[in-house]
Design brief:
The protein is mostly helical and 227 residues long. It is built from 10 helices and 3 strands; from the N terminus they run H-H-H-H-H-H-H-H-H-E-E-E-H. It has a 3-stranded antiparallel beta sheet with strand order 1-2-3.
């Protein structure tokens, strides 16, 4: 039997289940029952990938295959799914075992993401592909409208390099300013210098690469803010 919150979820998705048990299964973690969502999750993962791929192909004709793949990967990843699940209040609807519930499972990224995929699979089995596609796009299109599709998924060094190249400016230089800590627990302080912009930023991380990324991020943000 669906609860008032379950029905509110259906209303938000604009989807009335003909087989309510499919929705309940999509919201059931394996810690709660053997009738859990994992098989639905498997199905929903494929449906999500297909829907997003088609939408990106049609919505962004100027993007090449590499950019489309990068964008799709960042849209269907755990973090994005969990974020959408949190926005829907999905966590409070999940049926979890007592131990999983007490340990914060209702807000765990992996569980929220899996339940989202299971939800898509449930809609597909209940009403077919067009309905599943409609539900997926209802959630993802507004999210896409809020982000920059050209930068999503690119690391800070790449973004900074592309920014400078587009303006025919020399690439930044990176140098280690200091290394602190023991050999097994070092912290790197790195400087990113862009002489053409009279800009120097610093970043710190557990590896030289991470520190460079932090410094590049700081430089990129300053350039964008001042452009």
């Amino acid at each position: 039997m669906l609860t008032r919150d379950d029905l509110a979820l259906c209303e938000r998705l604009d989807c009335t289940f003909r087989q309510p048990n499919l929705l309940l299964r999509a919201l059931t973690h394996r810690s709660y029952s053997t009738g859990h969502y994992e098989r639905l999750e498997f199905l929903g993962d494929s449906i999500l990938g297909a829907v997003i791929a088609r939408h990106l192909f049609e919505a962004y004709p100027a993007l090449n295959e590499g950019d489309l793949s990068r964008l799709r990967s960042n849209l269907v990843k755990e973090e994005t799914l969990a974020l959408l699940g949190q926005q829907m209040g999905l966590g409070r609807l999940l049926r979890l075992g007592e131990g999983e519930r007490k340990s914060g499972g209702s807000q765990r990224v992996s569980i929220l993401a899996d339940a989202m995929e299971a939800l898509f699979g449930a809609v597909f089995l209940d009403q077919g592909y067009p309905a599943a596609e409609r539900v997926v796009l209802k959630l993802f299109v507004p999210y896409l409208a809020q982000i920059d599709v050209h930068t999503l998924g690119k690391d800070p060094k790449t973004l900074l390099q592309e920014y400078l190249q587009a303006r025919r400016l020399p690439l930044p230089g990176y140098r280690i300013v200091a290394i602190q800590g023991q050999a097994h627990e070092q912290s790197f302080l790195v400087e990113c210098a862009i002489p053409a912009k009279q800009l120097i930023t610093q970043g710190q991380g557990g590896s030289r690469r991470n520190a460079e990324q932090q410094a590049a991020q700081a430089a990129y943000e300053q350039l964008i803010a001042n452009s």
